[in-house]
Amino acid sequence: MPAPPPSPLPPNRKSLTLLLSSLPFLITFTHIFLSPYTKVEESFTLHAVHDVLAYGFWDHITFPGAVPRSFLPPILLGLITYPFSALFVALGVIKTKIGVQLLIRLILASFFSLSFNHLAASLQIVYGTPSRVWFTLLSLGTFHTSYYAGRTLPNFTALPGVLWSISQVIRSESSPTAKEGQTQLRNAIIILTALATIVRLELALFVLPLALSLVVLQRATIGQVIQWGLIGGFGSLAITSPIDYTLWLPALSHPDFPFNSPSQLLWPELSSIIYNALEGHSEEWGIMPFHYYFTNSIPKLLVGNFALVGLAGGLWASARVGGQKLMRQVGCWDKSRAGRGVGRLLTVWGLSISSVLVGLSALGHKEWRFILPILPILHIISALSASNLWSLPPPSSYLRPLARLAVLGLLAVNLLATGVMTFLSVNNYPGGEVWQALEAAGVAEGEKIWFPSYPLQTGATLFTFTHDHAAGQGLAFWPALPAAEEPRWVYDKSEGVNLSNSEWMDGVDFVVTGDWAGLTEDGWEMVAEVGGLEGVGKAPGQYKVEARWGRKLAILKKD
């Protein structure tokens, strides 16, 4: 009998486990420090956490955002952040509010990393150590997962719970007792349902087909999945509805608030889905073709992993239509745990993947982060595919060197793409850089700085308003935010301002804007600027591409 193929793993498994467990923290933290600022999509959660820590100026009343979200996730994130922030402020480690913003993102990335490691450990238990190795390398080697893991988008505040739930379902396959397996499935359905209810309702397209698959596969009964869903849905609503109603009610009279009935505040996520999807307001942000997720988002998210997913899915599909001989000749999918694992995964999760892709493709407005829940499943499939290719047994062992070279090549493609996209992305937050430019602009005590929408969309947040003295007492005796810088400045974020209104402009001393031409003609002096990425395009010469840089924001002072 031929000897098993050599494993790429070092003999010291404890060191390997420590290394693999450290990578999610190391990579996501690196992304946060390289790119510390945020975009407008992250502002609701980030500013709500600011409110929890500061208890002063309740920004959501003045600027409620496009649609309301539940306050429970940012409240929990704020409460978890508070003791660390208060300690680091007291010790002098955090000296400005920007340090608190970094801390919030690091804590969110830590939850991602912990849940990621839980899922990776489940793969190791069920499919073997090589599957964990490749899952870690192939997942973290792509850009979007690791770069956004510490960003306070609702999709990514839900991601740790999604990863943990997927892990529970996978781990239930090898539970020592049926009771333990049922408990793991119950926990997964409850958490996913709660996340769908509170954070992102499109998760219903993920969890409902999963529940149906578990029933069809006789891993749970109809009564069980209904009971678990009711606990997750109504249980979470019972907690969040009083909180959201109380905190959103003062914003109901705001002219930009999209809702007009107090009842819409009881379940913000449902009201937002009705407003965006059913009433069509999301299409104001752009309409994409039906095939967008299939031809744009998935290839962009998976990069090199796309080939591995395609190979695994194609071989699995060929077996369903009588292609077992091909399976034996090409992949030995019928002989390895990893190969059989692809079939088991698709049997459980295939309906969820299809439901998310088809259901969200029916909507006009599409964004890659909407299909985020299926991304871990696709990464797992790519890892199982890579694991199988790395250890091809006879009669395909003669293909093993070529297969290994292909897998390493795809991993290299991931890393190269991640490096390029990271380089471009970290230079795309001019609004976040404004606070440093203002320090050198000579702003005096009590002077007013007006921020129109563009700098607020590209990184300027309440945490970058380092000279703002409006924060309240905080959660407790020990402040979670450091003392504001001196001198005191007044930050103005008024929207819909008519620049020709001389009476209003007379009260403004500085303007931070991306549209400076008209103001400089009216006598405003440019005292500082912030550069950034203008775009990427073809450079002179064949096959050459260049990144174009330029002025993104100007700080203007009244002459």
UniProtKB/TrEMBL annotation:
Reaction it catalyzes: an alpha-D-Man-(1->2)-alpha-D-Man-(1->2)-alpha-D-Man-(1->3)-[alpha-D-Man-(1->2)-alpha-D-Man-(1->3)-alpha-D-Man-(1->6)]-beta-D-Man-(1->4)-beta-D-GlcNAc-(1->4)-alpha-D-GlcNAc-diphospho-di-trans,poly-cis-dolichol + a di-trans,poly-cis-dolichyl beta-D-mannosyl phosphate = an alpha-D-Man-(1->2)-alpha-D-Man-(1->2)-alpha-D-Man-(1->3)-[alpha-D-Man-(1->2)-alpha-D-Man-(1->3)-[alpha-D-Man-(1->6)]-alpha-D-Man-(1->6)]-beta-D-Man-(1->4)-beta-D-GlcNAc-(1->4)-alpha-D-GlcNAc-diphospho-di-trans,poly-cis-dolichol + a di-trans,poly-cis-dolichyl phosphate + H(+)
Pathway: Protein modification; protein glycosylation
Catalytic EC class: transferase
E.C. number(s) listed in UniProt: 2.4.1.-
Regions that span the bilayer: 16-34, 71-94, 106-127, 189-216, 228-248, 298-319, 345-364, 370-390, 402-424
One GO CC term, this protein: endoplasmic reticulum membrane
One protein family per Pfam: Glyco_transf_22
Annotated membrane topology: Multi-pass membrane protein
Key words of the record: Endoplasmic reticulum, Glycosyltransferase, Membrane, Transferase, Transmembrane, Transmembrane helix
Protein location: Endoplasmic reticulum membrane
GO MF annotations, alphabetized: dol-P-Man:Man(7)GlcNAc(2)-PP-Dol alpha-1,6-mannosyltransferase activity
InterPro entries registered for this protein in UniProt: GPI_mannosylTrfase
Predominant location category: endoplasmic reticulum
Superkingdom of source: Eukaryota
BP GO annotations: protein N-linked glycosylation
Purpose of the protein: Mannosyltransferase that operates in the biosynthetic pathway of dolichol-linked oligosaccharides, the glycan precursors employed in protein asparagine (N)-glycosylation. The assembly of dolichol-linked oligosaccharides begins on the cytosolic side of the endoplasmic reticulum membrane and finishes in its lumen. The sequential addition of sugars to dolichol pyrophosphate produces dolichol-linked oligosaccharides containing fourteen sugars, including two GlcNAcs, nine mannoses and three glucoses.
Entry similarity comment: Belongs to the glycosyltransferase 22 family.
Protein name (record): Mannosyltransferase
Organism lineage: Eukaryota, Fungi, Dikarya, Basidiomycota, Agaricomycotina
